[in-house]
Amino acid sequence: xxxxxxxxxxxxxxxxxxxxxKAVSETAATLPKLDRPKDWTSRHSHLPEAPxxxxxxxxxxxxxxxxxxxxxxxxxxxxxAARLKAASARAxxxxxxxxxxxxxxxxxxxxxxxxxxxxxxxNIQTTDFGLNLRVSWELDVWGRLRDxxxxxxxxxxxxxxxxxxxxxxxxxxIASGWFDSIQAGQQVRLATQxxxxxxxxxxxxxxxxxxxxxxxxxxxxxxxxxxxxESRLMVRQIELDAAVRLLEVILGNYPSSxxxxxxxxPPVKQEVPVGLPSQLLVRRPDILVAELQLAASGHRLRxxxxxxxxxxxxxxxxxxxxxxxxxxLDLKFLVWNLAANLTQPVFRAGELKSKVSLAEAExxxxxxxxxxxxxxxxxxxxxxxxxxxxLKGQELALETAVMESAEAEQLALSQYTQGTVDIITLLDxxxxxxxxxxxxxxxxxQRLQNRLELYLALGGSFKEESK
Length: 467
What we know:
It is built from 9 helices and 6 strands, in the order E-H-H-E-H-H-E-E-H-H-H-E-E-H-H. It has about 475 residues and is α+β, with helices and mostly antiparallel strands.
């Protein structure tokens, strides 16, 4: 059961943590109302002793090294890093529009003029040299250029958080692929053991058939179970091969299926602490991206509205002009000019109005995306927390089922040998043991996968990590 209070969807909470998000707070009144929990539901009993990175919660010595390799070599992450560089460049370009433009030029011209005087014709050739500086500056009287620069800065911050989200997601993908590969290896070993068990039972059935104690039906059923077990073994081998090759690709390696996989799924060092604060979601990269995109859309909307206002442009140039190259730096040959321009849009066939409408629609879309992202984050955390308890209970139940099934299998084999139960009871007990062990392997992996999903949902470990 959640303790709730009716607040605007994370707006005030998030705006306090990101500087320059005036556009977000201005939009707070337009955001939908949601019930935000003060604490996450959890029935666990203790807090971790100290903050730690979520990777360290898994007792696996290989996993951190795999993640480091993947963060260095994964090509999707390299693409995200390139997009971050592009966003940084666009932000610098937008910021440069606030400063004056200064150009320097050095020129030389050669010309010839013809003079006719009576019967005399003269050709006069001249050479002119020029050195000049030209300055152009748009005065940002209304703040239109500052809005464009602020929007580009928010886009860069959004791209940076997108890159951080890609790193977090990649680390989780590597961990998930590693756990899947370990599970697949365990399933191969279980399938191999099952084949051996069925073959041993088949030997007993064949021996009893030779003595006339067992029927041909017993033999046929036993052989069928052996063949089915061999088929499942090959399926498990296919799954292991596919899991390892997929992990190798995520790591940026050639899918050679040569990666060595450990035999056991790792335990988790700590339980989920009680009373996780919902403020942890502030650090989620996708929520930060949605907030920054909303802020950028607000800046763009204000900029489009200001495009209807007059623009002021100052231009000036100065330099020297002379026929002698050595006199270019002589101020006696100085020439200059200064101009000021005022431009007011008059008729654009509805272009400016349409651009404002477009910016308003994009801002409305950003508001909706922001709200949906927050709701999705809440759902993911609540689901992972609920599954944490349910999967733990399921694992305990399956451990009991494995123990009881194994005991029942031994009893059935003993009693079949003595002739007190039929073949169906024996084969059914063996299948029950296999199914219980198979399910136990799966649920242990599911618990690890769910813990990964919880870390992703929270944007990291259970406490704010040191910066």
